[in-house]
Amino acid sequence: MRNPQGMDKQMGVMQESMLNMSARDMTEQNHISRVWDVVEKARVGMLTTRFAGGLRARPLEARPDRDAGIIWFVTDVRGAKDDEIDADHDIGLVFIDEGDRAYLSITGRAFVTRDTAKTKDIWKKTDDIWLPGGPGDPNVRVLRIEPTRAELWDGPSSGAVAAFEFTRK
Fold first, then answer.
1. CB of 76 within 8 A of CB of 118?
2. Which residue range is the domain that position 106 belongs to?
3. How far, in Å, CA of 58 to CA of 38, rounded?
4. Whole-angstrom Cα distance, residue 100 to residue 17?
5. pLDDT at 71
6. What is the CATH number of the domain that holds 51?
7. CA–CA–CA angle 166, 53, 63 (5° rounding)
8. Are strands 90-97 and 102-113 parallel, antiparallel or unpaired?
9. Could you read off the pLDDT of 121-134 as tens digits, one per residue?
10. Tally of CA atoms within 13 A in the half-sphere of 114 that contains its CB
């Protein structure tokens, strides 16, 4: 005959473990939410791609889609980034929120497409400055970034980096 008291103790340990996992999951979700907050607030990030001579970075205005877990950009096909991304989909993004002293580095996978409907959906008035032909301009491309990892230095007392993995939905 089994010891019911021992089973009660095991059940208590399992329940405590499940609560700790839930607390960890919630904390992780809060951290990932903070990552999205920084992207949304900073708006402009530095996109880094790899080319034959090393690494190249340039500023781009982000269109984050938190629910989809995607960061969108409008780009011009006449730049080198499209060819660089076609050759190597791994990219880096850096966002800085000066007001909150938050520094964010995102690693992800990038894909460039010609998608007029998506371009119209994410188009901003400021895009007219760089791409006066509008969303239908044949040189306009949509850059889709799927974040895989984020490292966040958050606030003035943050001496350590917090790293978060994104899961694909």
1. no
2. 4-165
3. 18
4. 34
5. 97
6. 2.30.110.10
7. 35
8. antiparallel
9. 999 999 999 899 99
10. 7
Alpha-carbon distance of 142 to 135, in angstroms, equals 10
Identify the sign of the CA torsion 79, 82, 84, 89: positive
pLDDT at 136 over 70: yes
What's the pTM value of the predicted model, to 2 decimals? Answer: 0.78
Closest CA to 107 of 88, 135, 122, 133: 88
CA distance 77 to 85: 11
What single letter denotes the amino acid at residue 10? Q
Structure tokens at 87: 């050759």
Q: Is 70 a residue whose pLDDT tops 80?
A: yes
Interatomic CA distance for residues 41 and 95, integer angstroms: 9
pLDDT digits (tens, 9 = 90+) for 4-15: 555 555 544 444
Domain count within the chain: 1
Q: How many residues does the chain have?
A: 169
Cβ–Cβ < 8 Å for 164, 107: no
